Amino acid sequence: EDDGAFYLSDALATHNQTLQALSVTYNNISGAGLVALSDAMKTNPVLSYIYIWGNKFDEAACVAFAELLQTGRLKPTGTDVEPYEVDGRIYLAEVSHGLKRHYYWTPSYGEPDNEYENASLAINPVIEHL
Predict the structure, then answer these.
(1) Among 39, 50, 77, 96, which has the highest number of CB atoms less than 10 A from its own CB?
(2) Residue 9: CB partners within 8 Å, gap ≥ 6?
(3) What is the CA radius of gyration of the chain?
């Protein structure tokens, strides 16, 4: 929820040096919490992937994530939302990038271009040593 999003945003903005992907999907975060996460991404060059679908998007949150995408701070493949405009207002739509929801959180085919893309885990073959 928002309190957690605010604490997380503060940690991301001031202390994060290694976390590259963050998934906060379906966490009941409102617009204020999402804007805080967006602001943290502006000051944190390490965090490159953020997944936010299923939260409560208000206009400020939609505009904040649209700006991250428009400025290039967030790549379209680094999130699960895509902005669109209707009657001068910005909204966010869900984008899956080939992921099957509720199906082991893996790409539907092939390996991702980047090991952190879509927060999926690359499966390495196991070789038995005899």
Answers:
(1) 50
(2) 33, 36, 37, 39, 40
(3) 16
Number of folded domains in the chain? 1
Residue 116 lies in a domain: no
Q: How many angstroms separate the CA atoms of 9 and 47, rounded?
A: 11
Q: What is the pLDDT of residue 96?
A: 78
Whole-prediction pTM value?
Answer: 0.74
Which amino acid makes up residue 125? Answer: P
pLDDT digits (tens, 9 = 90+) for 41-50: 999 999 999 9
63: domain CATH number is 3.80.10.10
Is 32 part of any domain? yes
The predicted-structure confidence for 82-99, as pLDDT tens digits, reads as follows: 999 999 999 999 997 665
Residue-number span of the structural domain to which 9 is assigned: 1-94
